[in-house]
From TrEMBL:
CDD domains: arch_bact_SO_family_Moco (cd02109). This is Sulfite oxidase-like oxidoreductase. SUPFAM superfamilies: Oxidoreductase molybdopterin-binding domain. It comes from the Bacteria. Residues 33-178 form the Oxidoreductase molybdopterin-binding domain. InterPro entries: OxRdtase_Mopterin-bd_dom, OxRdtase_Mopterin-bd_sf. Residues 1-21 are annotated as: Disordered.
């Protein structure tokens, strides 16, 4: 497999690749269970919990300021892809239009298909995080999490939830799907926070 689909980091990019990772030649697709098929017309996004409840449809969400992003992407299954180009909305732009209770310490990401993943609020509200709806200038495919996914570049990619449709703000940590099934609570690639207890 190494050589055909993956390669070792070179001296030029080695400082951008976390320990134990190899560079992917393409953009692998890894999904547990069926891939949700959600059109932009039926897509909805909500916030609830320790926040003023709000709901957006696609056209409403697209009224938020949009940006282009280039970010490295690190999967817990030991591959990385550098310089991935996305189009989306910064998390900080969403934060500007919602009212979060000061007691909120964690966010549960909810997705079509029932997937969940947890993230501490300080990891969530970072300037480099965004909601992506295009990948390399093309509408985000269902396989890559379309019509919308969250991208959190500084954590392993299972925190960049595909098919996102809601955020639940909490005053405590609850574990999401993979966290309940043995993955690390935070998932920081440079510390190799892959699994619980590591």
């Amino acid at each position: 497999m190494l050589g055909k689909f993956f390669q070792k980091p070179t001296s030029e990019n080695g400082d951008r690749v976390p320990p134990g990772q190899h560079l992917a030649q393409g953009f692998p697709v890894l999904t547990y269970g069926a891939t949700p098929q959600v059109s932009r017309e039926e897509w909805e996004f909500s916030v609830w919990g320790l926040v003023q409840p709000q709901k957006w449809n696609w056209s409403d969400f697209m009224k938020l300021p949009q940006n282009e992003f280039t970010a490295d992407f690190h999967c817990v299954t030991r591959w990385s892809k550098l310089d991935v180009k996305w189009t989306g909305v910064k998390v900080t732009e969403l934060i500007k239009v919602i009212q979060i209770d000061s007691k909120a310490t964690h966010v549960m990401e909810h997705c079509y298909g029932g997937y969940t993943t947890n993230i501490a609020i300080e990891d969530f509200v970072r300037e480099e995080n965004f909601f992506a709806f295009k990948l390399f200038n093309e509408p985000l495919s269902a396989e890559h999490g379309g019509p919308m996914r969250l991208v959190v570049p500084h954590l392993y990619a299972w925190k960049s939830a595909k098919w996102i449709n809601g955020l639940e703000f909490l005053d405590h940590e609850e574990l999401g799907f993979w966290e309940r099934n043995g993955y690390h609570r935070r998932g920081e690639p440079w510390a190799e926070e892959r699994y619980s207890g590591f």
